[in-house]
Amino acid sequence: MSPTPSTRKASASARTAATGAARPPGPAARGHVTFLGAGPGDPGLLTLRAVEALSAADVLIADPKVLAVVRAHARAGAVMPHTSAAPAAHTSAAAGDDEPPTAADAGHLVMEAARAGRRVVHAVAGDPGLDGGAAQAMRACAAEGISFEVVPGVATAVGVPAYAGVPLHDPQGTDVRVVDAATASEQIWGEAGASDCTLVVQTSLEATAATARELVAAGRKPDTPMTVTLAGTTTRQRTFSATLGSVAQVLKSAKVLPSPDAGQAVIAVVGEQSAPARREQLAWFESKPLFGWHVLVPRTKEQAASLSEQLRSYGAVPHEVPTIAVEPPRTPQQMERAVKGLVTGRYEWIAFTSVNAVKAVREKFEEYGLDARAFAGIKVAAVGEQTAAALVEFGVRPDLQPSGEQSSHGLLEDWPPYDPVFDPIDRVFLPRADIATETLVAGLKDLGWEVDDITAYRTVRASPPPAETREAIKGGGFDAVLFTSSSTVRNLVGIAGKPHNVTIIACIGPATAKTAEEHGLRVDVMAPEPSVHRLAEALAEFGARRRAAAVEAGEHVTRPSERRPRRRARTTTTS
Known about the structure:
The protein is of the alpha/beta class. It has helices spanning about 5-20, 50-55, 65-70, 105-115, 130-145, 155-165, 185-195, 210-215, 245-255, 275-280, 305-315, 335-345, 355-365, 385-395, 410-415, 440-445, 465-475, 485-495, 510-520, 530-550; strands at about 30-35, 60, 120-125, 145-150, 175-180, 200-205, 225-230, 240-245, 265-270, 295, 315-320, 325, 350, 380, 425-435, 450-460, 480-485, 505, 525. Residues about 1-30, about 85-100, about 260-265 and about 570-575 have low confidence and may be disordered.
Protein backbone atom coordinates (compact mmCIF):
# COMPACT_ATOMS: atom_id res chain seq x y z
CA MET A 1 0.00 0.00 0.00
CA SER A 2 1.45 3.39 -0.93
CA PRO A 3 1.90 5.90 1.86
CA THR A 4 -0.79 8.50 2.35
CA PRO A 5 0.07 12.22 2.27
CA SER A 6 -0.30 12.41 6.04
CA THR A 7 2.08 9.45 6.47
CA ARG A 8 4.66 11.07 4.21
CA LYS A 9 4.28 14.31 6.12
CA ALA A 10 4.80 12.53 9.45
CA SER A 11 7.91 10.75 8.14
CA ALA A 12 9.35 14.04 6.92
CA SER A 13 8.66 15.61 10.30
CA ALA A 14 10.45 12.76 12.06
CA ARG A 15 13.50 13.18 9.82
CA THR A 16 13.48 16.93 10.38
CA ALA A 17 13.35 16.44 14.14
CA ALA A 18 16.21 13.96 14.07
CA THR A 19 18.53 16.05 11.95
CA GLY A 20 17.64 19.61 12.87
CA ALA A 21 16.48 20.56 9.37
CA ALA A 22 14.77 19.12 6.35
CA ARG A 23 16.98 17.43 3.73
CA PRO A 24 18.26 20.05 1.27
CA PRO A 25 17.07 19.52 -2.32
CA GLY A 26 19.26 17.54 -4.68
CA PRO A 27 20.66 14.01 -4.47
CA ALA A 28 24.26 15.22 -4.03
CA ALA A 29 23.59 17.19 -0.85
CA ARG A 30 25.85 15.89 1.90
CA GLY A 31 26.81 17.23 5.30
CA HIS A 32 30.05 17.09 7.19
CA VAL A 33 30.91 15.10 10.32
CA THR A 34 33.51 15.96 12.94
CA PHE A 35 34.48 13.04 15.17
CA LEU A 36 35.63 14.81 18.29
CA GLY A 37 37.51 13.56 21.33
CA ALA A 38 36.25 15.27 24.49
CA GLY A 39 38.92 13.83 26.79
CA PRO A 40 38.49 11.92 30.05
CA GLY A 41 36.18 14.40 31.83
CA ASP A 42 37.98 17.62 32.74
CA PRO A 43 36.39 20.38 30.58
CA GLY A 44 39.77 22.12 30.48
CA LEU A 45 41.19 19.29 28.38
CA LEU A 46 39.09 20.16 25.31
CA THR A 47 41.35 21.36 22.50
CA LEU A 48 40.97 24.72 20.79
CA ARG A 49 40.00 22.93 17.58
CA ALA A 50 37.30 21.02 19.47
CA VAL A 51 35.78 24.25 20.81
CA GLU A 52 35.87 25.74 17.31
CA ALA A 53 34.10 22.72 15.82
CA LEU A 54 31.43 22.71 18.54
CA SER A 55 30.68 26.39 17.98
CA ALA A 56 29.97 25.72 14.28
CA ALA A 57 27.92 22.52 14.60
CA ASP A 58 24.29 22.28 13.52
CA VAL A 59 23.84 18.96 15.30
CA LEU A 60 25.69 17.71 18.40
CA ILE A 61 25.62 13.99 19.17
CA ALA A 62 27.50 13.30 22.40
CA ASP A 63 28.46 10.34 24.51
CA PRO A 64 26.49 10.75 27.78
CA LYS A 65 29.78 10.77 29.71
CA VAL A 66 30.93 13.98 28.04
CA LEU A 67 27.63 15.71 27.26
CA ALA A 68 28.07 18.29 30.01
CA VAL A 69 31.64 19.00 28.84
CA VAL A 70 30.80 19.72 25.21
CA ARG A 71 27.33 21.21 25.57
CA ALA A 72 28.75 24.37 27.13
CA HIS A 73 30.54 25.15 23.84
CA ALA A 74 27.67 24.30 21.45
CA ARG A 75 26.35 27.25 19.49
CA ALA A 76 22.92 28.64 20.31
CA GLY A 77 20.30 26.73 18.35
CA ALA A 78 22.38 23.60 17.86
CA VAL A 79 20.25 20.47 17.89
CA MET A 80 21.08 17.64 20.29
CA PRO A 81 19.06 14.55 19.31
CA HIS A 82 17.85 11.98 21.78
CA THR A 83 16.33 8.63 21.01
CA SER A 84 13.11 6.80 21.75
CA ALA A 85 12.47 3.08 21.54
CA ALA A 86 12.23 3.03 17.75
CA PRO A 87 14.99 4.57 15.62
CA ALA A 88 12.45 5.91 13.13
CA ALA A 89 10.77 8.00 15.77
CA HIS A 90 13.74 10.20 16.68
CA THR A 91 12.87 13.62 17.99
CA SER A 92 15.10 16.60 18.59
CA ALA A 93 16.01 18.53 21.70
CA ALA A 94 17.36 22.03 21.80
CA ALA A 95 20.71 22.61 23.44
CA GLY A 96 20.19 22.18 27.15
CA ASP A 97 18.10 18.99 27.13
CA ASP A 98 19.51 16.15 29.17
CA GLU A 99 18.63 13.16 27.02
CA PRO A 100 21.71 12.15 25.00
CA PRO A 101 21.63 9.30 22.48
CA THR A 102 22.54 5.79 23.50
CA ALA A 103 25.80 4.43 22.15
CA ALA A 104 23.95 1.99 19.87
CA ASP A 105 21.96 4.77 18.24
CA ALA A 106 24.73 7.38 17.91
CA GLY A 107 25.99 6.12 14.56
CA HIS A 108 22.47 6.08 13.13
CA LEU A 109 21.89 9.68 14.24
CA VAL A 110 25.22 10.81 12.80
CA MET A 111 24.39 9.38 9.38
CA GLU A 112 20.82 10.71 9.35
CA ALA A 113 21.98 14.26 10.11
CA ALA A 114 24.88 14.11 7.64
CA ARG A 115 22.63 12.84 4.84
CA ALA A 116 20.40 15.83 5.52
CA GLY A 117 23.30 18.17 4.79
CA ARG A 118 24.02 19.24 8.34
CA ARG A 119 27.33 19.96 10.06
CA VAL A 120 27.52 17.23 12.69
CA VAL A 121 29.80 16.84 15.69
CA HIS A 122 29.99 13.36 17.22
CA ALA A 123 31.69 13.79 20.61
CA VAL A 124 33.09 10.76 22.43
CA ALA A 125 34.96 10.31 25.69
CA GLY A 126 38.74 10.21 25.36
CA ASP A 127 39.97 10.02 21.76
CA PRO A 128 37.79 9.01 18.77
CA GLY A 129 40.59 6.84 17.40
CA LEU A 130 40.12 4.54 20.40
CA ASP A 131 36.32 4.42 20.16
CA GLY A 132 34.91 1.49 18.21
CA GLY A 133 31.56 3.15 17.54
CA ALA A 134 33.21 6.26 16.12
CA ALA A 135 35.44 4.14 13.88
CA GLN A 136 32.39 2.32 12.50
CA ALA A 137 30.66 5.64 11.79
CA MET A 138 33.81 6.91 10.01
CA ARG A 139 33.68 3.89 7.69
CA ALA A 140 30.00 4.54 6.99
CA CYS A 141 30.77 8.17 6.07
CA ALA A 142 33.58 7.07 3.77
CA ALA A 143 31.29 4.51 2.08
CA GLU A 144 28.66 7.17 1.32
CA GLY A 145 31.08 9.90 0.32
CA ILE A 146 30.29 12.11 3.30
CA SER A 147 33.23 14.29 4.25
CA PHE A 148 34.51 13.98 7.78
CA GLU A 149 37.40 14.99 10.01
CA VAL A 150 38.83 13.74 13.28
CA VAL A 151 39.67 16.06 16.16
CA PRO A 152 41.86 14.06 18.56
CA GLY A 153 41.24 14.25 22.28
CA VAL A 154 43.25 13.35 25.36
CA ALA A 155 42.93 9.57 25.62
CA THR A 156 41.49 8.37 28.92
CA ALA A 157 44.30 5.82 29.26
CA VAL A 158 46.84 8.67 29.14
CA GLY A 159 45.00 11.55 30.79
CA VAL A 160 43.79 9.75 33.92
CA PRO A 161 47.23 8.43 34.97
CA ALA A 162 48.68 11.90 34.39
CA TYR A 163 46.09 13.40 36.78
CA ALA A 164 46.73 10.57 39.26
CA GLY A 165 50.45 11.34 39.37
CA VAL A 166 51.48 8.16 37.56
CA PRO A 167 53.81 8.82 34.59
CA LEU A 168 53.65 5.87 32.22
CA HIS A 169 57.23 6.00 30.93
CA ASP A 170 60.38 5.92 33.01
CA PRO A 171 63.98 6.84 32.03
CA GLN A 172 64.63 3.19 31.17
CA GLY A 173 61.97 3.36 28.48
CA THR A 174 59.66 0.67 29.86
CA ASP A 175 57.04 -0.37 27.32
CA VAL A 176 53.44 0.69 27.90
CA ARG A 177 50.45 -1.42 26.94
CA VAL A 178 46.75 -0.53 27.16
CA VAL A 179 44.26 -3.31 27.83
CA ASP A 180 40.46 -3.08 27.80
CA ALA A 181 39.35 -5.60 30.41
CA ALA A 182 35.87 -5.84 28.91
CA THR A 183 37.15 -7.28 25.62
CA ALA A 184 40.52 -8.79 26.59
CA SER A 185 40.96 -12.43 25.55
CA GLU A 186 42.79 -15.13 27.47
CA GLN A 187 45.70 -14.66 25.08
CA ILE A 188 45.92 -10.92 25.84
CA TRP A 189 45.94 -11.59 29.59
CA GLY A 190 48.62 -14.21 29.10
CA GLU A 191 50.84 -11.81 27.17
CA ALA A 192 50.27 -9.00 29.68
CA GLY A 193 51.06 -11.28 32.61
CA ALA A 194 54.25 -12.59 31.03
CA SER A 195 55.53 -9.10 30.23
CA ASP A 196 57.18 -6.60 32.57
CA CYS A 197 55.70 -3.61 30.72
CA THR A 198 53.60 -0.92 32.39
CA LEU A 199 49.97 -1.92 31.96
CA VAL A 200 47.11 0.58 31.72
CA VAL A 201 43.90 -1.37 32.21
CA GLN A 202 40.51 0.13 31.40
CA THR A 203 38.16 -1.74 33.69
CA SER A 204 35.30 -1.19 36.14
CA LEU A 205 34.97 -1.20 39.90
CA GLU A 206 33.31 -4.58 39.85
CA ALA A 207 36.00 -6.10 37.62
CA THR A 208 39.10 -4.58 39.26
CA ALA A 209 39.80 -7.49 41.62
CA ALA A 210 39.20 -10.00 38.82
CA THR A 211 41.63 -8.06 36.61
CA ALA A 212 44.33 -8.37 39.29
CA ARG A 213 43.70 -12.10 39.64
CA GLU A 214 43.96 -12.59 35.86
CA LEU A 215 47.37 -10.91 35.83
CA VAL A 216 48.69 -12.91 38.80
CA ALA A 217 47.45 -16.11 37.21
CA ALA A 218 49.25 -15.14 34.00
CA GLY A 219 52.59 -14.63 35.77
CA ARG A 220 52.69 -11.18 37.35
CA LYS A 221 53.97 -11.17 40.94
CA PRO A 222 51.32 -10.44 43.61
CA ASP A 223 53.50 -7.64 45.06
CA THR A 224 53.51 -5.72 41.74
CA PRO A 225 52.42 -2.10 42.47
CA MET A 226 49.00 -1.06 41.20
CA THR A 227 46.99 2.18 41.30
CA VAL A 228 43.24 2.36 40.81
CA THR A 229 41.70 5.69 39.80
CA LEU A 230 37.99 6.45 39.82
CA ALA A 231 36.35 9.47 38.10
CA GLY A 232 39.74 10.49 36.73
CA THR A 233 40.46 14.14 35.82
CA THR A 234 37.36 15.37 37.68
CA THR A 235 37.08 16.79 41.18
CA ARG A 236 35.50 13.47 42.21
CA GLN A 237 38.76 11.68 41.38
CA ARG A 238 40.00 9.15 43.93
CA THR A 239 43.19 7.12 43.54
CA PHE A 240 44.11 4.09 45.62
CA SER A 241 47.59 2.57 45.82
CA ALA A 242 47.83 -1.19 46.26
CA THR A 243 49.43 -4.30 44.77
CA LEU A 244 47.92 -6.97 42.56
CA GLY A 245 47.59 -9.16 45.62
CA SER A 246 46.10 -6.53 47.95
CA VAL A 247 43.89 -4.42 45.71
CA ALA A 248 40.66 -6.24 46.56
CA GLN A 249 41.24 -5.70 50.30
CA VAL A 250 42.35 -2.06 49.83
CA LEU A 251 39.18 -1.20 47.92
CA LYS A 252 37.03 -3.07 50.41
CA SER A 253 38.66 -1.29 53.37
CA ALA A 254 38.08 2.05 51.65
CA LYS A 255 34.42 1.02 51.22
CA VAL A 256 34.70 1.43 47.47
CA LEU A 257 33.35 -2.03 46.75
CA PRO A 258 30.54 -2.84 46.51
CA SER A 259 29.53 0.43 44.90
CA PRO A 260 26.18 1.88 43.87
CA ASP A 261 27.88 3.15 40.70
CA ALA A 262 27.79 -0.16 38.90
CA GLY A 263 30.00 -0.10 35.86
CA GLN A 264 31.84 3.05 36.92
CA ALA A 265 34.91 3.49 34.73
CA VAL A 266 38.25 2.77 36.36
CA ILE A 267 41.81 3.19 35.11
CA ALA A 268 44.28 0.82 36.77
CA VAL A 269 48.02 1.17 36.22
CA VAL A 270 50.14 -1.90 36.94
CA GLY A 271 53.93 -1.68 37.25
CA GLU A 272 56.73 0.03 39.13
CA GLN A 273 55.61 3.42 37.79
CA SER A 274 52.61 3.23 40.12
CA ALA A 275 54.65 2.58 43.29
CA PRO A 276 53.24 4.62 46.22
CA ALA A 277 56.50 6.49 46.91
CA ARG A 278 56.58 7.79 43.35
CA ARG A 279 52.90 8.68 43.27
CA GLU A 280 53.01 10.65 46.51
CA GLN A 281 55.62 12.95 44.97
CA LEU A 282 53.72 13.47 41.72
CA ALA A 283 50.05 13.50 42.78
CA TRP A 284 49.62 17.15 41.81
CA PHE A 285 45.88 17.07 41.14
CA GLU A 286 44.47 15.42 44.25
CA SER A 287 46.84 17.43 46.45
CA LYS A 288 45.33 20.79 45.46
CA PRO A 289 44.42 22.75 48.62
CA LEU A 290 40.65 22.56 48.14
CA PHE A 291 40.48 19.37 46.10
CA GLY A 292 36.90 18.13 45.93
CA TRP A 293 35.58 20.79 48.32
CA HIS A 294 32.03 21.90 47.56
CA VAL A 295 32.12 25.65 48.14
CA LEU A 296 28.96 27.73 48.35
CA VAL A 297 29.26 31.13 46.67
CA PRO A 298 26.26 33.33 47.54
CA ARG A 299 26.26 35.17 44.21
CA THR A 300 24.73 34.81 40.77
CA LYS A 301 26.72 32.93 38.11
CA GLU A 302 27.44 36.22 36.30
CA GLN A 303 28.76 37.92 39.43
CA ALA A 304 30.72 34.88 40.56
CA ALA A 305 32.33 33.95 37.22
CA SER A 306 35.94 34.91 38.01
CA LEU A 307 35.66 33.86 41.67
CA SER A 308 34.31 30.44 40.73
CA GLU A 309 37.09 29.99 38.19
CA GLN A 310 39.66 30.83 40.88
CA LEU A 311 38.10 28.27 43.22
CA ARG A 312 38.25 25.62 40.48
CA SER A 313 41.97 26.30 40.10
CA TYR A 314 42.33 25.24 43.75
CA GLY A 315 40.44 22.01 43.03
CA ALA A 316 37.10 23.13 44.49
CA VAL A 317 33.60 22.65 43.09
CA PRO A 318 31.84 26.05 43.34
CA HIS A 319 28.05 26.27 43.70
CA GLU A 320 26.55 29.69 43.02
CA VAL A 321 23.41 30.52 45.03
CA PRO A 322 22.12 34.09 44.56
CA THR A 323 20.97 35.69 47.80
CA ILE A 324 19.75 38.97 46.31
CA ALA A 325 17.76 39.87 43.23
CA VAL A 326 18.13 43.16 41.39
CA GLU A 327 15.05 45.15 40.35
CA PRO A 328 14.55 48.57 38.70
CA PRO A 329 13.99 51.60 40.95
CA ARG A 330 10.39 52.28 41.91
CA THR A 331 10.60 55.77 40.38
CA PRO A 332 12.74 55.64 37.20
CA GLN A 333 12.43 59.37 36.45
CA GLN A 334 15.41 60.27 38.66
CA MET A 335 17.66 57.84 36.77
CA GLU A 336 16.38 59.07 33.40
CA ARG A 337 17.16 62.72 34.24
CA ALA A 338 20.66 61.76 35.43
CA VAL A 339 21.48 59.88 32.23
CA LYS A 340 20.27 62.80 30.13
CA GLY A 341 22.42 65.09 32.28
CA LEU A 342 25.38 62.83 31.60
CA VAL A 343 24.95 63.44 27.87
CA THR A 344 24.38 67.20 28.17
CA GLY A 345 27.50 67.87 30.24
CA ARG A 346 26.07 68.16 33.74
CA TYR A 347 28.77 65.98 35.34
CA GLU A 348 32.54 66.00 35.70
CA TRP A 349 32.64 62.48 37.17
CA ILE A 350 30.57 59.29 37.29
CA ALA A 351 31.41 56.72 39.98
CA PHE A 352 30.48 53.05 39.74
CA THR A 353 30.65 50.96 42.91
CA SER A 354 29.20 47.71 41.56
CA VAL A 355 28.65 45.66 38.44
CA ASN A 356 24.91 46.16 38.88
CA ALA A 357 25.36 49.93 38.67
CA VAL A 358 27.22 49.52 35.36
CA LYS A 359 24.46 47.26 34.11
CA ALA A 360 21.73 49.72 35.11
CA VAL A 361 23.38 52.65 33.31
CA ARG A 362 24.16 50.51 30.27
CA GLU A 363 20.54 49.36 30.00
CA LYS A 364 19.35 52.96 30.19
CA PHE A 365 21.87 53.94 27.49
CA GLU A 366 20.59 51.18 25.22
CA GLU A 367 17.02 52.31 25.87
CA TYR A 368 17.94 55.76 24.55
CA GLY A 369 20.06 54.44 21.66
CA LEU A 370 23.33 55.57 23.27
CA ASP A 371 26.66 53.77 23.53
CA ALA A 372 30.01 54.24 25.27
CA ARG A 373 30.76 57.37 23.23
CA ALA A 374 28.37 59.26 25.51
CA PHE A 375 31.09 59.07 28.20
CA ALA A 376 33.40 61.31 26.14
CA GLY A 377 34.79 64.11 28.31
CA ILE A 378 33.56 62.54 31.57
CA LYS A 379 35.91 61.03 34.13
CA VAL A 380 34.94 57.53 35.25
CA ALA A 381 35.72 55.92 38.63
CA ALA A 382 35.21 52.26 39.55
CA VAL A 383 35.44 50.22 42.75
CA GLY A 384 36.52 46.60 42.32
CA GLU A 385 38.07 44.55 39.54
CA GLN A 386 34.76 43.14 38.35
CA THR A 387 33.18 46.59 38.13
CA ALA A 388 36.13 47.81 36.08
CA ALA A 389 35.89 44.73 33.84
CA ALA A 390 32.17 45.39 33.26
CA LEU A 391 33.02 48.94 32.18
CA VAL A 392 35.77 47.77 29.83
CA GLU A 393 33.30 45.30 28.29
CA PHE A 394 30.97 48.27 27.74
CA GLY A 395 33.82 50.11 26.01
CA VAL A 396 34.80 52.43 28.87
CA ARG A 397 38.18 52.39 30.60
CA PRO A 398 38.05 53.77 34.18
CA ASP A 399 40.14 56.83 34.92
CA LEU A 400 40.29 56.09 38.64
CA GLN A 401 40.34 52.92 40.71
CA PRO A 402 41.36 52.58 44.38
CA SER A 403 45.08 51.93 44.65
CA GLY A 404 44.54 50.13 47.95
CA GLU A 405 41.36 48.81 49.54
CA GLN A 406 38.69 48.10 46.93
CA SER A 407 35.87 49.92 48.72
CA SER A 408 34.25 53.33 49.02
CA HIS A 409 36.88 54.23 51.65
CA GLY A 410 39.65 53.19 49.26
CA LEU A 411 38.15 55.25 46.44
CA LEU A 412 37.88 58.35 48.66
CA GLU A 413 41.55 58.06 49.59
CA ASP A 414 42.50 58.48 45.92
CA TRP A 415 39.73 60.86 44.83
CA PRO A 416 41.04 64.38 44.06
CA PRO A 417 39.47 67.36 45.84
CA TYR A 418 37.41 69.74 43.76
CA ASP A 419 39.55 72.50 42.22
CA PRO A 420 37.63 75.27 40.41
CA VAL A 421 40.70 76.07 38.31
CA PHE A 422 41.06 72.56 36.85
CA ASP A 423 37.50 71.24 37.21
CA PRO A 424 35.00 73.16 35.06
CA ILE A 425 32.10 71.24 36.62
CA ASP A 426 31.75 70.36 40.31
CA ARG A 427 29.14 67.58 40.09
CA VAL A 428 29.44 63.78 40.43
CA PHE A 429 26.86 61.24 39.20
CA LEU A 430 26.68 58.31 41.64
CA PRO A 431 24.37 55.49 40.41
CA ARG A 432 23.96 52.91 43.17
CA ALA A 433 21.71 50.52 45.06
CA ASP A 434 18.84 51.67 47.24
CA ILE A 435 20.52 50.19 50.34
CA ALA A 436 24.03 51.60 49.78
CA THR A 437 25.71 53.40 52.64
CA GLU A 438 26.28 57.17 52.73
CA THR A 439 30.06 56.87 53.13
CA LEU A 440 30.98 57.79 49.57
CA VAL A 441 28.46 60.63 49.31
CA ALA A 442 29.64 62.24 52.55
CA GLY A 443 33.30 61.83 51.61
CA LEU A 444 32.86 63.41 48.19
CA LYS A 445 31.04 66.39 49.71
CA ASP A 446 33.90 66.83 52.17
CA LEU A 447 36.22 67.02 49.15
CA GLY A 448 34.13 69.88 47.74
CA TRP A 449 32.02 67.98 45.20
CA GLU A 450 28.30 68.14 44.64
CA VAL A 451 26.80 64.66 44.35
CA ASP A 452 23.71 63.44 42.53
CA ASP A 453 23.07 60.31 44.58
CA ILE A 454 20.77 58.30 42.28
CA THR A 455 19.02 55.01 42.99
CA ALA A 456 19.88 53.02 39.85
CA TYR A 457 18.52 49.69 41.10
CA ARG A 458 16.92 48.04 44.10
CA THR A 459 18.20 44.93 45.83
CA VAL A 460 15.66 42.49 47.24
CA ARG A 461 16.07 39.12 48.88
CA ALA A 462 16.27 36.33 46.30
CA SER A 463 13.89 33.40 46.20
CA PRO A 464 14.93 30.35 48.24
CA PRO A 465 17.19 27.87 46.42
CA PRO A 466 15.92 24.34 45.61
CA ALA A 467 15.08 22.06 48.53
CA GLU A 468 18.15 19.86 48.00
CA THR A 469 20.42 22.93 48.20
CA ARG A 470 18.76 24.11 51.41
CA GLU A 471 19.17 20.64 52.89
CA ALA A 472 22.86 20.56 51.89
CA ILE A 473 23.43 23.95 53.55
CA LYS A 474 21.76 22.99 56.82
CA GLY A 475 22.92 19.37 56.78
CA GLY A 476 26.63 19.95 56.19
CA GLY A 477 26.73 19.03 52.51
CA PHE A 478 28.95 22.03 51.72
CA ASP A 479 32.57 22.13 52.82
CA ALA A 480 32.80 25.93 52.90
CA VAL A 481 30.80 29.07 52.26
CA LEU A 482 32.22 32.42 51.17
CA PHE A 483 30.45 35.45 52.61
CA THR A 484 31.30 38.59 50.64
CA SER A 485 29.16 41.06 52.63
CA SER A 486 26.96 41.27 55.69
CA SER A 487 23.88 41.17 53.45
CA THR A 488 24.95 37.82 52.01
CA VAL A 489 25.05 36.41 55.55
CA ARG A 490 21.60 37.74 56.46
CA ASN A 491 20.02 36.79 53.17
CA LEU A 492 21.48 33.28 52.95
CA VAL A 493 20.34 32.45 56.47
CA GLY A 494 16.98 33.99 55.65
CA ILE A 495 16.30 32.03 52.44
CA ALA A 496 18.13 28.78 53.12
CA GLY A 497 18.92 28.44 56.83
CA LYS A 498 22.13 28.48 58.86
CA PRO A 499 25.11 26.50 57.52
CA HIS A 500 26.00 23.35 59.47
CA ASN A 501 28.76 23.67 62.08
CA VAL A 502 31.14 21.44 60.06
CA THR A 503 31.06 23.97 57.19
CA ILE A 504 34.06 26.30 57.02
CA ILE A 505 32.90 29.92 57.18
CA ALA A 506 35.03 32.42 55.26
CA CYS A 507 34.32 36.17 55.45
CA ILE A 508 35.60 39.06 53.38
CA GLY A 509 36.20 41.39 56.33
CA PRO A 510 35.53 42.23 60.00
CA ALA A 511 32.05 43.67 59.45
CA THR A 512 30.93 40.56 57.58
CA ALA A 513 32.54 38.33 60.21
CA LYS A 514 30.69 40.19 62.97
CA THR A 515 27.37 39.64 61.19
CA ALA A 516 28.17 35.95 60.76
CA GLU A 517 28.94 35.61 64.47
CA GLU A 518 25.71 37.42 65.35
CA HIS A 519 23.92 34.68 63.43
CA GLY A 520 25.63 31.99 65.47
CA LEU A 521 28.30 31.07 62.91
CA ARG A 522 31.93 30.26 63.73
CA VAL A 523 34.23 32.27 61.45
CA ASP A 524 37.21 30.16 60.35
CA VAL A 525 38.77 32.29 57.61
CA MET A 526 38.96 36.02 56.98
CA ALA A 527 40.46 37.76 53.96
CA PRO A 528 43.55 39.90 54.71
CA GLU A 529 41.92 42.68 52.69
CA PRO A 530 38.34 43.19 51.38
CA SER A 531 38.70 41.45 48.03
CA VAL A 532 36.80 38.38 46.83
CA HIS A 533 39.96 37.01 45.25
CA ARG A 534 41.96 37.46 48.45
CA LEU A 535 39.09 35.72 50.25
CA ALA A 536 39.42 32.72 47.93
CA GLU A 537 43.20 32.75 48.46
CA ALA A 538 42.71 32.77 52.23
CA LEU A 539 40.37 29.77 52.00
CA ALA A 540 42.90 27.91 49.84
CA GLU A 541 45.66 28.65 52.38
CA PHE A 542 43.39 27.34 55.13
CA GLY A 543 42.78 24.17 53.13
CA ALA A 544 46.50 23.70 52.48
CA ARG A 545 47.31 24.00 56.19
CA ARG A 546 44.55 21.55 57.04
CA ARG A 547 45.80 19.06 54.46
CA ALA A 548 49.42 19.38 55.62
CA ALA A 549 48.39 18.77 59.24
CA ALA A 550 46.51 15.60 58.28
CA VAL A 551 49.44 14.28 56.24
CA GLU A 552 51.91 15.03 59.04
CA ALA A 553 49.68 13.19 61.52
CA GLY A 554 49.46 10.23 59.17
CA GLU A 555 45.70 10.68 58.82
CA HIS A 556 43.56 10.27 55.71
CA VAL A 557 42.89 13.67 54.13
CA THR A 558 39.17 14.35 54.32
CA ARG A 559 36.89 17.19 53.34
CA PRO A 560 35.08 19.08 56.15
CA SER A 561 31.72 17.69 55.02
CA GLU A 562 33.04 14.16 55.50
CA ARG A 563 33.34 14.85 59.23
CA ARG A 564 29.60 15.12 59.68
CA PRO A 565 28.25 12.84 62.36
CA ARG A 566 26.42 10.03 60.66
CA ARG A 567 22.76 9.60 61.51
CA ARG A 568 22.20 6.48 63.52
CA ALA A 569 19.72 4.06 62.09
CA ARG A 570 16.56 3.82 64.07
CA THR A 571 16.09 0.59 65.93
CA THR A 572 12.85 -0.79 67.15
CA THR A 573 12.25 -3.21 69.97
CA THR A 574 9.40 -5.58 70.37
CA SER A 575 8.09 -7.01 73.58
